[in-house]
Amino acid sequence: MRLLNLTIQNFGVFHGRHDFDLMPVSDDPARLRNAENALHPLVVISGQNGVGKSTLFQALMLALHGSLALGDQVSRQAYSDFLVSRLHRRMGIGIPVMADDALVALSFRYVRSGQPQRILVERRWRRSGEQVTETLKFFCDGKVPEVAAEDYQNWLNDLFPPGLAAVCFFDAEKLEALSHPDHYSELLGVTLRRLLGLDLVERLQNDIDRYLTLRGGGSKEGDRLRGEKKQIETSLKKLEMQLEKLGKQAEKLLAEEKRLDEALSTQERRLVAEGGSYAARRSAMLERLQPIEREIDQLSTQLRDMCAELLPFALAPELCASLSDRLKIEASLDNTQSAEHLEQHLNELKSVIEEDDLWQDIKISYFNRNQFAERLIKKLRKAARAKKTAKASVLHELAEPERERLQSWITQVQHSVPQQTSFIGERLRALQEEQTRIEADLRRVPDEATLAPIHAEITRLQTELEELRLRQSELNEQIGAAQFQRAEAARKLERVSEKFATVQARQRQTQLAERSRRALRSYHEALLRQRIAALEKALITSFNTICRKEHLIEQVSISPDLFTVELRGADGRALDLSAFSAGERQLFALALLWSLRQVSGRQLPLVIDTPLARLDDSHRSRLLHDFIPQVADQVALLTTDAEMDARLLGQAEPYLARAYRLHFDARKQETVVV
To answer: Is 655 in contact with 624 (CB distance < 8 Å)?
Structure first.
């Protein structure tokens, strides 16, 4: 794995966007692409305290692992509160202003199945009040991987497990813990377990122990299940016998019900034969007969009233129609003008016809024109004389209202009166037929003495049938309850039988789990001893390489249980880490870190925050010349000005890829990167 670029925006003391190129540099580009170790692996980021070096260190771990960078048990709210505290703040007009969003992005090269891949991880945070939401984007060779967004972090953890962070990112706190006589053993144990995956082995061992605890007592459980199975089988047999007995009772009741149904049908047929059906309907027929008779009387009265009014005229429709026509003619004669007025109009009409303007553009001779005028006037005078004659022959001297009322009656006689008479007649005929039918049925009703015995027998049979069906209902409830109990017993027997059948299999599984536990314990112990032996040798070499007191440590013994380290010098004398100087203890921590990386067997980048604080010039020089070129093919040092001055930076020139200088602008309350 090789870190390529870190981008940070509005995070901590950094305002706006800043890019840090972390890529090692080689004089030979082909060597940089193909070799594991570059000629210039070192990137230095320096500045005074508080300018953002630890922020960059934190940003690297956040980019890779998000909330896991703060610990395994960090809650979502605690993570949100932390992100709120890391949003950039700057001075506005007299008041601090907090950024609404921030970003951290890290690109790195990763070789997977022999194929190099360029990975880009981008985390963006957006603030809403006092809460921060995180958006994670992930790109592989510039493309979004075929992974659900919610699984991005798991995919990233597979590439770079969180346990590897222990040997890739070291700050002053971890270096202090590794160099402190009271704390290094605990941190060493945690780091070595995570680095080798032994924490997963121990977790698996605990799971197997819990599994065996839960599976304990297999023989006792088998005896209990055998007894329970026998008891259920006995209960099931009793339920089967009970159901058989209830079934026979149900068959008897069913036969009795059939007999009663047949007897009841026989009595009902007798009742019908004796006219009992008419007797049963007598009251209903009487109740229906009364409104029929009332309606017949009403319709007869209505028909008589119509006979006294317009109905007789409906019997002579032709006369009514002739009268209507005569009345219309006489009405039109009243509107005809007098003959004198008509003659005057005829003379005026003749004058108009004889004018030349009327015949303009019409090709007709003068003679024909006069002939036409004379004939037209003659026809009009003849018509006027006919009307005058008709006027003299008016038969009905009626006023206009009387004539209109007479026409209305004629219209009723021709239309509504026949329809109404037809409707009343049909309704009267239907009612009379229904009246005749009901009276005939009433005459068929037998006397009570004939029907009384049949009614009594029917009542008795119906009562017996109701009691029988009640007993059937109670018996069906008993059968249903017994069937439910039988089904429950059968299901319980099936479950117990399955459990009983798996007891021996579980015992076999328990034996296999016990063997697995012993194998894991042996594997854990063997791997731990092997790696601790390798770590002991590597620690001797690493420490003596970077310490000016060469061969100060000749022997190292690490306890596989407590991870305490016992050091011995050249004379075999035990060395107490607490007797070391502060610089030597820090060298011991760096040597231990170097050794852990060698034991891991992986080529991983190394980022150290404030690594040179307690070292003198001699040890700093050895660290630059002996530690950095060999510890990793990519090293990033976050140092203060006191740790990495211009002289020491000049010594690091042969290994230096690039250097960044951080300045804090107190006026703008932000860091400037050079």
So the answer is: yes
Average pLDDT over all residues of the chain: 80
CB 228 within 8 A of CB 464: no
Tell me the pLDDT tens digit for each residue of 344-374. Answer: 777 777 777 777 777 777 777 777 777 877 8
Residues 6 or more apart whose Cβ sits within 8 Å of residue 338: none
pLDDT digits (tens, 9 = 90+) for 90-137: 876 667 788 899 999 999 998 877 788 899 999 999 999 889 999 999
Spatial separation of the C-alpha atoms in residues 393 and 381, rounded to whole Å: 19
Collapsing DSSP to helix, strand or coil, 143 comes out as strand
- Residue 564 buriedness (CB in 10 A; 0-12 / 13-18 / 19+): middle
pLDDT tens readout for residues 522-537: 887 888 888 888 888 8
Per this entry, what is the length of the chain? 674
Contact between 546 and 589 (Cβ < 8 Å) = no
Residue 131, phi then psi, degrees to nearest 5: -115, 150
- How far is CA 572 from each of CA 576, 581, 591, rounded to the nearest angstrom? 13, 20, 21
Pairwise CA distance, residues 553 & 535, whole Å = 14
Q: Is 107 helix (H, G, I), strand (E, B) or coil?
A: strand
Least confident of 153-167, 206-220, 223-237, 453-467: 206-220
> pTM, whole model, 2 decimals?
0.53
Longest dimension (CA), the chain: 172
17, pLDDT greater than 50: yes
Decide: helix, strand or coil at residue 66.
Answer: helix
Q: 136-169 burial, b if ≥16 CB within 10 A, otherwise e?
A: eebebeeeeeeeeeeebbeebeebbeebbbbbbb
User: Among candidates 146, 126, 128, which has minimal Cα distance to 136?
Assistant: 126
Are 212 and 510 spatial neighbours (Cβ–Cβ below 8 Å)? yes
Taking alpha carbons only, the member of 14, 94, 92, 98 closest to residue 50 is 14
- DSSP result, 319-379: HHHHHHHHHHHHHHHTTSPPHHHHHHHHHHHHHHHHSTGGGTT----HHHHHHHHHHHHHH
Rounded CA Rg of the chain: 60
3-class state of residue 651 by DSSP? helix
Whole-angstrom distance, CA of residue 135 vs CA of residue 124: 5
Determine the 3-state secondary structure of 512 from DSSP: helix
Give the type of residue at 293: E
pLDDT digits (tens, 9 = 90+) for 60-79: 999 999 988 888 778 889 99
Closest CA to 260 of 479, 453, 472, 449: 472
